[in-house]
Structure formats: structure tokens, C-alpha cells
Amino acid sequence: xxxEKPFCKRITPGFLKKNLEEYKEWIREPLYVCTxxxxxxxxxxDLCKPVPLDAARRNGKGASGENS
Length: 68
Ligand SMILES: [Zn+2]
Hints:
It contains 3 helices and 3 strands; from the N terminus they run ααβββα. By secondary structure, it is of the alpha+beta class. The protein has a domain at 7-53. A 3-stranded antiparallel sheet has the order 2-1-3. A hairpin with a 5-residue loop joins strand 1 (32-34) and strand 2. The longest helix is centred in the first third of the chain and has 14 residues, at 13-26. It is globular and about 35 Å long. Bound molecules: zinc ion (ZN). Zinc ion is lined by residues 8, 34, 36-37, 39, 47-49. The site of zinc ion has 8 residues, from loops.
């Protein structure tokens, strides 16, 4: 149990059944996307190949509160 698997590896169908609420918290307002698995998370360390989401582009939609 010293071993901390990346978020990507922990998400299995069984995990989701038991921990869906926790999972929902993890993926809420994600800041990083895993370029390997396509998962998202708020912390880079939770993903195996994280890249910041806002590196791509930030001015699309849904960032802050400003829709026009
Ligand atoms: Zn991954």
C-alpha cells in the first residue's frame, strides 16, 4: 500500500461502482488531461501523462463565468 498508482490506473469499472462520488470530485473542474488515457484530473500527479488543459487554449468556453 505504499504504492500509489496514478489516478488513471485506479479507475476501473469496479472502482467506479464503489467510489463514484469520489471520482466525481476528482474530475470536477479538471486542470490536466492525460495524453495517454484521455482521463482528466485536477492534479497532475494523478495522471500518467498529464498536460495542462489550459496550455491548449483557454478562451473557448466554460472557464470562468463569462459567456457572451
Ligand atoms: Zn493516464
